Amino acid sequence: MEREVKVVIYGMGEIGKRVVRALSEKKGVKVVGAIDIAESKIGKDVGELAGLDRKLGVVVSPNVDKVLGETKPDVVIHMTQSYFKKVFPQLVKIVEYGANVVSTCEELSYPYIVDENLAKKLDSLAKEHGVTILGTGINPGFLMDTLVITLTGACVKVNKIKVTRVINASTRREPFQRKIGAGLSVEEFNDRIKKKIISGHVGLEQSIALIASALGWKLDKIVVEDVKPVVAEKEIKTDFLVVKPGQVAGLMQIAKGIAEGEEKIILDFRAFVGASEEYDAIEIDGLPPINEKIVPCVHGDWGTVAMVINSIPKVINAPPGLKTMKDLPVPSATPVDLRVCLKS
Amino acid sequence: MEREVKVVIYGMGEIGKRVVRALSEKKGVKVVGAIDIAESKIGKDVGELAGLDRKLGVVVSPNVDKVLGETKPDVVIHMTQSYFKKVFPQLVKIVEYGANVVSTCEELSYPYIVDENLAKKLDSLAKEHGVTILGTGINPGFLMDTLVITLTGACVKVNKIKVTRVINASTRREPFQRKIGAGLSVEEFNDRIKKKIISGHVGLEQSIALIASALGWKLDKIVVEDVKPVVAEKEIKTDFLVVKPGQVAGLMQIAKGIAEGEEKIILDFRAFVGASEEYDAIEIDGLPPINEKIVPCVHGDWGTVAMVINSIPKVINAPPGLKTMKDLPVPSATPVDLRVCLKS
Fold it and tell me: Which ipTM score applies to this complex?
């Protein structure tokens, strides 16, 4: 591909803005359109909205048909919602306009366990229009699934897999600390869980299903446990709040893939203030055994932006259809000029 | 593919034997032939030679044409030599018999830097015969290249990469300890280097070139430094030998990928007795930065066997041609029944 890759941003939230900023430092790629329904964003220049010091000459529009019809993008970076059924009509429309899709929709990272028929329908539609659809991100999409799968490549045998992600929320912004319940009493926390003000991590189920699918494992069930509070044992002070002993420091959630009564895949996600270490760990009980750890844990927002941008050449080069991370070539950072990694 | 995958073992050395043992625990795959030129192996049953407690009904033959012609394998597991030009005629013959190839030839993991024309010729020939050729292993093939590339997938920007593999030879067999020079004086060590009795790790150059290729980096040069002794500071006793202070504990080798005067990729390989920790570490200076470590380091022999076996479905499913690890889907352990991961 000799010309620039044309990208439309669908969803100008925090990740969307970062994607715009990161793309502005690349060559061979151009943001040609942006879609968002928020009144506060409509009509604004994408560059200014993203915090760049210059206009990009592209304004945010709520009109999907107009943007896609007029710009004819190669790829739409889709960042609107977490649930497959909710984004399905949006994806159908993008595909019908003949554009490839990289989406951060968590459930799209392995949609077959949400609604197999709908996933197959999307796959057929993508093939019909000659485009590729991929759900990705840092988690789901990489740390608790694709990276795990990759490491099993060095194993002759795999018996059991344990993955742990621990985020020290003390180093994060105030909204994140509040979101995970830091500083609440256990009662308040449980009440917010009930009212769905605090919700779990979407995608643990997808990560387990993606791993099992790559390894050819037939799971009997995937159990996603309730979100639980991580209770502080001693006082924790952050820049924004104080957590007293017995109060909530954050949250944790565990999911398990079970086959023949055995826990074959265990994912353990924790985010709380005062964590002594933050890390991403993968333990594979196999031949050979593999104990891998990333310290500190990979930054979620930048990691997601990276996974999204780095998937652009992969989806353009891939055969058409609805793909998952296990179907595509190994992830890799894109060069400064994106055209380098596009097949001509 | 409903029938069993037919495999020929080309090279019944230590890795070849382990591959036979590992394949014997899988379903949907059958060793249909074995090639080796060693007088001591010819005519022996592959199962017995590999240390299985049963015959496989396949005997080792030195006659490549006979074995390939009679067995018509889907894949040949090729494990003979380290250098691309030496194995080239062997690979050509396999391809002409219409079989896919997974090879542990170190230079084949990225042969373009050895002889670009020869590599392109092999690619054309593979396409002509509709087969796929892959050079892989644990190192080169995974720890110092494919895994590195995979981790950069979570980076928006990559400035510099450092990879370190430290093997504690104290835990290895005596021949390995002797091979790396443990117990020699520095003079003896350097003499053996000169006489090429002790040689460096083959493949560091390939690993650097593979990473650069995946990231779209143009390197000015790849510098592979001389093998150097790791000198013991205190006495080290192993089950087989004693190293006194000032004597050689093992060896180390460094390779660098350089662009515009900057060291962009550094690979540091060390194997010595008395290492306090053995590990595989990857440090990516990027956005976000990633510091990853596998402790203990991945077992080289089992890791290579795994990479080879796990590549069987990938090469069968891949489009024809000479491929490198970056071109194929993410590595993954094969299920017990290999047929599960084959496209029909």
Answer: 0.97
